[in-house]
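Standup notes
- DV: blocked on the single-chain target, sequence here:
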Amino acid sequence: MPMESNVRKSSIIKSVLRKVMAPLGACVFGLVVLFGLRMLPDRVKPEAKIEDPIVNVSVVEIKPVERLADTFTVECIVEPWATIRLSAETAGRIEKISAVEGDLIQPNQPLISLERDLLEAAFRQAKAKADFDAREYLRTEAANERNAVTQMEVDVVRSAAEVSKAAMDLAEAQLRRTIIRAPATVHDNNRGTNNPTKVLGVLDNLAVEVGEFVKSGDLVAEIVDSSVVKVMVDVPERDVRYIRPGQAVVVQADGAGEVVGTIHFIKTAADERTRTFRTEIKVPNPTGEIRPGMIVKVRLLRQELADVIMIPLDAVIPLESGYEVYVNADGKAERRQVSLGIIRGRMVQALPGATGESLRAGDRLIISGQRLVAEGQLIAEQPMAALAVPGEGGLVQVAEVEPSARVNGTGGNER
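- DV (later): unblocked, structure below
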C-alpha cells in the first residue's frame, strides 16, 4: 500500500541521518576543545605582591624646655594708691580758693578759706570771758588763803574758769577750721604708720566754688596719689595657693609697656558670690603713665616647671577619649597616647597619657602628615624649616615645617 511504503522510507532516512550526524558532532566538539586548549597560556604567572605605601612626613626632634613659667593673665582696673577726700569741718561761706585742679599738693598746704568774721567775734567773746574768769579764780583763791571765802566758793569759781577756758578753745578750734588744709601726713600701708612725704598727690577734684556755702561734712576736694598705683585682681580659688605677698608680678599697660609690681595684700576670705580672693598689687608709677581707671593686664606666676616637653598643637590628634601623636621609630610610625597641659600660643605641653606612655627627649615627632599614618606605617622624613617653642626669656627657634604630605610621590590631603 502506498501509505505504508512512505512510512517505511521515512524511518530509513532518520536512521541514516543518526548514523551520519553522530560522528560529525563528535568531530566538531573535538575541534572546539582542541582550539580552546591552544589558546591557553603555557603556564599561569604568580600574582605580584602589593607593597605598603610610604608616607612622606615632617618631623621635629623633641628637646625639653629647661625652664617654663606657668602663668595666667587677667585684666584689671588701675586704682590710685591713696585718695584723700577733704570735707568742711565747720559751716561757712567760701571766701578764697588757693589751689586749682592739677596742682601738686604739699603736706599741710592751705586750700580753701571760709569767712571768719562771725567766728572771730565768737572767739574774742569767749576769750574775754575766759580771761575774766581766770582772774576771778586767782582773786578768790587769794581770799581763801586769808579765810575770807569758803572752799566751796573757790571750787565754784575754778569750775567757771575751766568752762570759760574750754569755750574759748572751742571757738579757737572752729576759727582754725575755716582754713581747709591738706593733711600733714599720709598713712603708709606698707608700715602701718603715718609717713611724712614731700608731695601728697594731685588735686584731682575741686568740688566747690568761691561764694558757695558749705556745711560741716560737705566734700570740698579730692587729692589723688598716683605716684604708686594699685591693681585689684580677683584670683580664682584654684590659683590662690600659688601666690604670696611680696611676689613679683608683671603688669602691662598701653603706652607704659611692662612694669614689675609686687603683691601687697591677699584677702583671707573668698568673695561669697564669685568665690575669688581679692588681691592687691602695688605698682610703682613715677612717670604717671599708668593712670587710675585704665585697664591693664596682669601676669601672675603659678609655678616654674623644669624639662617641659612642648609640641605643636597641630601634631596632636584628638580621640574620643584623650589624644595621640605619632613618632618616627626606625622608619615606621609609632603611636603615643598623651594628655595636654600648658598651652603657649601654637605649642602645648605633652604629658603622659592614660596608658602611661609619654614622649621623651630625642623622639622624632611627626608634625605634618600624622593624620595619614597608622601604627607601623612606613614613613619617609622630609626637610623642614624652623619652629618656635616657648622657653626661658621668650620663644626659641627649634623647627617648623609646612610641607604638604605626599604618599608615593602623589599629593594627598590630611583627613
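- Follow-up: Residues 73-79+226-304 form a domain with the Elongation Factor Tu (Ef-tu); domain 3 fold (CATH 2.40.30.170).
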